[in-house]
Amino acid sequence: MLQKPKGTYDIYGDNALKIIYLRKLINALMDKYNYKYFKTPTFEKSEVFHRGVGVTTDIVSKETYDFVDRGNRNMTLRPEGTAGIVRSFIENKLYADTMPFKAWYFGSMFRYERPQSGRYREFLQFGAEAFGSYDPMMDAEIISIIVNFFELLGLKGIKVNINTLGDNESRLNYRKALMDYFKPHIDSLCDDCKNRYEKNPLRILDCKVDADKDIMKNAPKMVDYLNDDSLNHYSKVKEYLKAMGIEYVENPRLVRGLDYYTHTVFEVEADIEGFGSQNVLGAGGRYDDLVETMEGPKTPGVGFAIGIDRLLLALESLKIDITEEDYLDIYAFCFDEEQRPYMMSLVNNLRLNGFNIDMDLIGRNIKNNFKHADKLKAKFVIIIGEDEVKTNIITLKNNETKEEYKIELENLIEFLDLKISEE
Ligand code: AMP
């Protein structure tokens, strides 16, 4: 039997309904924030991610799906959403429009990770990016989207962990302090951290392997290396979060896995039993240098991404049911082949008039047609026989009350509108 690749999954049935529901909720939510839907290709030239996400990050150095296409070009399935949007922002000169630019996306990301519950090789992310303002209001607005989204869904114990990485000057000072501090201890660090020491020492703080060692706990803190501008930015973000009633916890060791962050970084988790480190449902930060690094004009930005798969698992474990009831307005069937053109015309017309309607496509007998109508949770059943075709008087049955009606074709839509809106 052919099987799906490791770390992937199929979406159908209730999960499909849940995803559709989340998409609707996200559409409506992002309208409220005036963010516009944005779609970039699922694959890009590899250099987009090498430059955008950074070659020292785990997701680029260890986890990308790379391939050479038939034209001998190096391509990569996107591991995250930001780099593609930045590439498009520059390529389409969207920076020439009025700022800020505010966009959201929803789609598959690909990472060659070790699959486990809540961690897949193809997974769905919903994210947003805002470009064009250095103001900490933009950081706070972005964080508020995640919190409002989770609250709308009914998640409890939502916790925003935040930290600042400061501007370039602050980060360079901090980087130097970290290198001086870790230098005598380098042998006691794990292999990954030995690598990070030269390339991106801030990421040593993020290490899960060395996390509990004393040298980690006593490491210099970013906050002691922030210049006035960076401190001011950070305190404004916190002030605006407070103003919106958003609770946060400062976590000086939060650095996030990507190279492009400046100033604010954050992770949002919910209180979910048994989720351990998987309870981080969304994360992001500010990236004031990324557009320039990717050869665009210097443009500040902030963004976040939420893992939809992990969110679905969280909702399930919290017993929050977001499956909307699946039903049909009408199910139609006819007795004989001669009545099929009449039925198809009627069904087509009803669909164009906004009804959800299915019909018998395999020639069931009457009993099985009624059974099928029940299974599809149809509110009404339309039955077409010889008489209906001749007289244009349609027989329909309320599938719940079993009441039967004979309605003239020309009055059918009005009748159904009335009856279905009464339900
Ligand atoms: P990141 O892009 O790494 O900051 O991750 C943002 C969010 O995406 C995480 O909080 C997870 O919810 C989700 N996520 C990241 N990697 C995976 C994965 N391999 N499988 C499923 N969800 C993921």
How would you describe this protein?
- With 423 residues, this protein is of the alpha+beta class.
- It is 38% helix and 22% strand.
- It is built from 15 helices and 16 strands.
- The strands form three sheets. An eight-stranded mixed beta sheet has the order 1-5-6-11-10-9-7-8. A five-stranded mixed beta sheet has the order 13-12-14-15-16, with helices on both faces.
- The chain is elongated.
- The model has no long low-confidence stretch (mean pLDDT 92).
- The site of adenosine monophosphate has 17 residues, from strand 6, strand 10, strand 11 and helix 11.
- Adenosine monophosphate binds next to strand 6, strand 10, strand 11 and helix 11.
How much β-strand is present in the residues? 15-25%
Number of E-state strands: 16
Estimate the global geometry from the Cα principal axes: elongated
Bound molecules: adenosine monophosphate
Spatially, the strands of the biggest sheet line up as: 1-5-6-11-10-9-7-8
Q: Level of helix content?
A: 25-40%
Number of helices: 15
Please identify the structural class as seen in this structure: alpha+beta
Measured on Cα atoms, how large is the radius of gyration?
Answer: 28 Å
- Average pLDDT across residues? 92
How far the N terminus sits from the C terminus, by CA atoms, comes to: 45 Å
Main β sheet profile: 8 strands, mixed
